[in-house]
Write a structure and sequence with these properties.
- The protein folds into three domains: 36-113, no CATH class; 119-233, no CATH class; 260-336, no CATH class.
- Helices cover 35% and strands 20% of the residues.
- The chain has helices spanning 2-21, 54-71, 118-126, 145-162, 172-191, 195-202, 260-267, 300-308, 317-325, and strands at 36-42, 45-51, 91-93, 96-101, 111-115, 129-130, 133-134, 203-208, 211-222, 225-233, 280-283, 312-315.
- The longest helix is centred in the N-terminal third of the chain and has 20 residues, at 2-21.
- It is built from nine helices and twelve strands.
- The chain is of the alpha+beta class.
Length: 342
Amino acid sequence: MQRLKAKDASEGDLKPIRAKLRFLGKNDQFDPNYRRLRYIRYADDFLLGLDGPREEAGEIKVRLGTFLRDHLKLELSPEKTLITHARTEKARFLGYDVSTFDNPGRPGHGHITPRIPPQVIEEKVARYTRGGKPAHRPELANESDFTIVGTYGQEYRGYTQYYAYANNRYWLHRLHWAMRFSLLKTLAAKHKSSVAKMAERYSANAINENGVAKCLQVIIQRPGKSPLVATFGGQSLKAQPFRWIEDQFLDRDRVICRNELIQRVMADECELCGSRDRVQVHHVRKLADLKIEGRKDAPSWKQVMASRRRKTLIVCKGCHEAIHAGRPTRTRDPQDANTTEN
């Protein structure tokens, strides 16, 4: 019994010492000989992380500039080659803000954190807004609903995947809001409808690593074939600091086809009138051939190809013959514009 009491007393004496230990760094902050240098490079961009005096950081910068100039005939950019303090400033690297995040409960135990710069969010949101409000994109007016949703979906996936490592990846919620309403306004302007009706028509659910999320989706059913699906949204915006990116290589037995022309052909629908009668592909030699000097009103098929900046157009046999004969082509009935889309 006496031994247990003595043990309890010793544990009580260690509690305040252990509490102080939590606030001590693992390294001696006053060690004059301690140094640590980290290096990361991508193409011609590189970042050096030095745990040491600022004077030595300046010396490293000078030596790097001398080496690049004398041996590689390269020059450091004065505007981009900066010395920043990781605890009070942010270093810009590959579109990320890199700084040190300190644990409030354990001073001195900070770790490097990549974040999305606020300027990046504002710049990307501005692409889909006018006057601070989401706006439609008139250049997509002649596209199908499948292509419009797919275009927005590809752009948004690019943003979310690039900033997968960002600690504040959830900031992309604001971009998602701007892009979603811009997409719905684009569809509403095309169909002369309302945003609410477009949202109700194309609302769907997507499954991600965190469960089920809402998205906008267009599905084109094809008899005897798997449907074509275009999706906007549905990604998780939780940071993925350990995400592993794998390069995909072509397999001999499985060809990955991402060409939009193939998808348009597989849709088996005339892009002028919506007919499915013997769908063919009309080609022009170059985009310059779509311009006609001395004529204000170009044929509708040329206007469509010029607005999409494509040298191919998916047409039915009747429209294809009309194009080559110089006759007006048929037009799509707005009420039947997307009878195959769900």
